[in-house]
Each structure stands twice: as C-alpha cells, then as structure tokens.
Write a structure and sequence with these properties.
Blueprint: E1 5-9, H1 13-25, E2 29-33, H2 36-45, E3 50-54, H3 62-72, E4 78-82, H4 87-95, E5 100-103, H5 108-123, E6 132-135, E7 138-141, E8 146-149, E9 152-155, H6 158-169, E10 174-176, H7 177-185, H8 190-206, E11 214-218, E12 222-226
Parallel strand pairs: 1-2, 1-3, 3-4, 4-5
Antiparallel strand pairs: 6-7, 7-8, 8-9, 10-12, 11-12
Helix pairs in contact: 2-3, 6-8
C-alpha cells in the first residue's frame, strides 16, 4: 500500500524540518517547501494526498497558494498553519477552501490528530463521488447542492448548502455562531443572525429522518452537528 503523501509549505526551515521528520516518523511521506511558489510547482509536478500550508510565506502566501491548488484539485484536503489567532485569518482560510486550520504554537500530537481525522473523512468516500459527504444515512452532494436519503432528494439553496458544509467541517465540535455568520453572510448583525436561525431550522427538518443526526444549540456559543 502506498504511503500517504503530504505537501508541507512552511517558510520557517527549523519548524518545517521538525514537522517533516515527525510526520515521516509517523508513516507520512512528506515534502517540505519554504515558499508558496516552490510549493505550487511541487504540487503541479507530483501527487499529494493532503496539503499543510503556512499562511505567512514569502513570494506567495498560503491563501493564494490554496486558491491555485483548488483550481487544479478541488478535493484535496488543505490544513492551514497560522501564527495568528485572528478570526479574520481563519475565515479567509475557509473561504479559500480549507478543511481545517491549526494555530501556532501547536502540539505535534494535535496536528497528527487533525490530519488523521481529515484523512478518515475523505477516505470514507472511497468509491463514491469525491463531492459527496456522508452525514449519518444522508449523502450531501456539495456540487449539486442536494441532500439524499435513499430515493428522497432535497434540493438545497446556496446558503443552506454553505451552512451545512460548515457544520459538517465542524461536526461533533462547536461551530461558533459569529464565525458562521461572518463566513457565510460576511456580517454578524441581528438580521443575518435571525436569517441563520431560519436556515438551521430548515436543515433540522431536512435531516429529521435519521435520528442519529442532530443539530444542537450550544447556548451562547453556536451549534454542533452530531453524527
């Protein structure tokens, strides 16, 4: 069986080498690039299963690199490494198609856990359309914006689809209310908040035929998709 290959873009060579050696010791074949431009060229010429991208890099930053990678491969998992805890960075990261992010300083164990969790998610879809996400007994087609259960198909609006995707990316964890509002509606004002409540109610209705799937209100914080 081929080893999982990771593209690592990190301009701090010491940290980069440390991460590379750690991931290789855990069985991941890892290539280190110290700027976004070289990382992009490496991605074009080779095959990878996951990308770890630092946000602040010379020549080409992580956001630009992620957008260019997404143009070539819309499905490859991308995890951002960021020295900033600023929510704006995180939001921008998800807008460019990130699957997850981790804020420096982080533990190697946490990074490994995130990588393994993402790879498990992507591999549960082996043999299926890569744009299909499994939510309990439902299949969520992110391209067609459809939620399927057997022969029953529920068409989703763009906002419903974006919100369900965000909940899925945070499943079994808390999706912060303000984060969701700023990511999807670009503004966390009162009217958008009321609008999101309506969409949450609609998604609950669409998912009601599988009792193992629930969208739970976390008082004062946000929502959790349990599946």
């Amino acid at each position: 069986m081929e080893k999982t290959r990771i593209l690592l873009a990190e301009d701090d060579e010491n940290l980069g080498m440390l991460l590379k050696e750690y991931l290789q010791a855990k069985g991941y074949e890892t290539e280190l690039f110290t700027d976004g431009d070289h990382a992009y060229k490496g991605f074009v010429t080779d095959h990878y299963d996951l990308c770890l991208l630092d946000i602040m890099m010379p020549v080409k930053d992580g956001f630009t690199l992620a957008k260019e990678i997404r143009e070539l491969n819309s499905d490859i998992p991308i995890v951002f490494l960021t020295a900033k805890s600023m929510k704006e960075d995180v939001i921008e990261g998800f807008r460019t198609g990130a699957d997850d992010y981790i804020t420096k300083p982080f533990s190697m164990e946490e990074l490994l856990f995130r990588i393994e969790a993402i790879l498990r998610r992507t591999r549960t879809n082996d043999g299926h359309n890569a744009n299909e996400l499994h939510i309990g007994k439902y299949i969520f087609d992110t391209t067609k914006q459809e939620l399927r259960l057997g022969n029953k198909i529920q068409k989703l609006t763009t906002k419903e689809s974006e919100l369900l995707r965000l909940l899925y990316n945070h499943r079994n964890r808390i999706l912060e209310r303000n984060f969701a509002l700023r990511t999807i509606w670009m503004d966390d004002n009162y009217f958008n908040a009321r609008s999101m409540d309506v969409y949450i109610t609609k998604l609950r209705k669409y998912l009601k035929d599988d009792p193992s799937v629930k969208i739970i209100n976390i008082h004062g914080k946000g929502y959790r998709l349990v599946c």
